[in-house]
Amino acid sequence: MKEKQMDNTLAGYILAGGKNTRMGGRKKLFLKYRGKQFYLWLKNGLKAAGALYVSVEEYAPYEGLDAVLVKDIYKGTGPIGGICTGLKLCQEDALLVVPCDMVPVPDRLLKDLMEIYRRTGRPVCPSAGDRLLPLPAVYSKEMLPAAEELIAEGNCRLCGWWERSLAGCEILPLEHTTVNNVNTKEDYKRLEGQ
Fold first, then answer.
1. pTM of the predicted model, to two decimals?
2. Do 45 and 37 touch, CB atoms closer than 8 A?
3. pLDDT 10s digits, 108-121
4. Phi-psi category of 76—alpha, beta or left, where left has phi over 0 and alpha has psi -120 to 50?
């Protein structure tokens, strides 16, 4: 199949809808790295994607952000529910999805994901060998039916969503890119010490 430049639209999407229990309830989007909030690092990394959305469980305390807030409509389903909500409510054809705790931002990876999507018009998922890495990735509205089936089945794994959608997707093999996530207080202490 010959690749061609596509007109499909893309937006940036930050997943911030969790309870942050491993961080003692601290909202990760407001944590700081090198004096700047995670939100600002992620916003800068996603600026080439176009519009910016933030997936939240509740609007508070995110009302002051200069992004469109998207309140989850699939309660208790984790990231898959937040992404589905964004795909249903956004005007764009696809979302470049990043977790709120992915700092430092892998700028080259985000640029590669956007470039592949804009060239092919297909969802894009990074991989390390035969292991899919579903965040960050480009999710499209065409993937919604598979996600809704999985949610109905009680299977809310992002990798399961990609496995069900693979026929219509692009895979970006990673060799040397490191993606860091701040999952715990200890992770944050390590990051602060860098």
1. 0.90
2. no
3. 999 999 999 999 99
4. left
